[in-house]
Amino acid sequence: MSYKRVKIIRALKEYGFEFLREGGNHTIFTNGEITVPVGRRNEISPKNCSQNSERNPYSMDRI
Q1: Which of 6, 35, 41 is closest to 21 using CA atoms?
Q2: Lower CB count within 10 Å: N or C terminus of the chain?
Q3: Domain 3-58 has CATH 3.40.630.30
Q4: Enclosing H/E stretch for 49
Q5: Average pLDDT, the chain
Q6: How far is residue 35 from each of residues 1, 3, 29, 45, 59, measured CA to CA in Å?
């Protein structure tokens, strides 16, 4: 099972994250305290999402 990039971005925006900048291979979102990179692939593996969620206290279960 993989996550759709659009759903990840939608969930981040619901949590109050805003677009910060485009990185080399990622789009960067922030809420002022936490910065979350989202890869530029249509489908993102759960492994990559779990790595991001270790740095992010928000649950990926809502996606």
Answers
A1: 35
A2: N
A3: no
A4: helix 46-54
A5: 79
A6: 25, 19, 6, 19, 15
Q: Report the SS3 class of residue 39.
A: strand
Q: Note the pLDDT of residue 40.
A: 85
Residues 3 and 48: beta-carbon distance below 8 Å? no
Per 3-state DSSP, the chain is made up of helix, strand and coil in percentages (nearest 5) of 35, 30, 35
Q: What does the pLDDT average to over 1-25?
A: 89
Q: What global pTM score does this model have?
A: 0.71
Domain residue limits, the chain: 3-58
Q: Kindly state the DSSP code that residue 43 receives in the 8-state scheme.
A: E
